[in-house]
Amino acid sequence: MKINSNMGKVEIRDQKQRYGDSHRGIFALERIEKGEKIWYCECGKKDACFTKDQLLNIIKKNPKLYNFIWSFSYMIDDDLFGLSYNYKDENTIDECVLFNHSCDPTCGFGENGCGDNVIAIRTIEPGEELTYHYGILETESCLIQGLICKCNSQNCVGKLTFDYYRDPVFVNKYFEYMSPYLKKKTLEMNHKWYSIKCYVKRYIPNDSSDDSSCDLEDWRKGLCSLKSISQDELVASFASEEHVQEHMHYLRHNSFDPNCYIIGKNVYACFDILPEVELTVDFGNDSNPQPSAPIRNSSSNDATN
Ligand SMILES: [Zn+2]
Ligand SMILES: [Zn+2]
Questions:
Q1: What are residue 44's DSSP bridge partners?
Q2: Does the chain have fewer CB atoms within 10 Å around its N or its C terminus?
């Protein structure tokens, strides 16, 4: 499985003192040049996929897996997380999951890479830790949201918020090293903006009673609040009204009691919305939903996009 981990030049070291129990890290034994391949394996192809709710359910049923799942799951798409298929035994497939985060990282992902295809993004001296910025892999709805960074770099942000793909400076620096999912999220921002207070969630299909029996790709995607949203707060904005139409399948139609309303290319909250509530809009026509004229006027909010 481990085709070329360049292990001659790196070693795994215990990092308990720095990061806490059972934490390890990967360190350079020799000088590694920028662009050099550090890790290549195919674990990602074998990993199991779960939604966030599924991961939280696994932890609920088996609390001792909390640390393992929290440390070693990673985002591969909206509300989709990869995790070693050996997770029940708390076994990772190999050490590719041991790269720690740094706010001033030495590594990034190679072409089409995730944690299993890591390259040096600058010259790395012997003794330096091999790290990447977790902002090239995770978004706001990740499990490790709010992680306190212990990288000790000069530009350390402390608490990690995982909204870095929204920051043009970060994107300019790291886009080529991002995972395919984060590249997609970054490019999406050109025509589709969601507030950091909501995320695209996968909902189990109505005709399925068992959430483990169906293909995750068949799950319906819907925009869901991640944090509390205030009345009249902007939750989504699209490049044009056509884009609203194109993406409205993420906003569920509800003509009875929608919790959001559309003005032009923007979507606002009708009232205060708690976390983990699906966002709904009245598109105006049950049989053939189309974005309607504003169902509510607001003068208190201007589009920020
Ligand atoms: Zn691997
Ligand atoms: Zn840091």
A1: none
A2: N
> Candidates 1.10.1060.10, 1.10.10.60, 2.170.270.10, 1.50.40.10; correct CATH number of 2-188?
2.170.270.10
Number of H helices, E strands in the chain: 7, 19
Question: CA-CA distance, 154 to 159, in Å (whole number)?
Answer: 14
* pLDDT per residue as tens digits for the range 163-207: 999 999 999 999 999 999 999 999 999 888 899 999 999 987 766
Look up the CATH architecture of domain 193-281.
Beta Complex (2.170)
Q: Give me the amino acid identity at 204.
A: I
Cα of 272 from ligand 1 centre, angstroms: 44
ipTM given for this complex: 0.95
Distance (angstroms) between ligand 2 centre and the Cα of 133 equals: 9
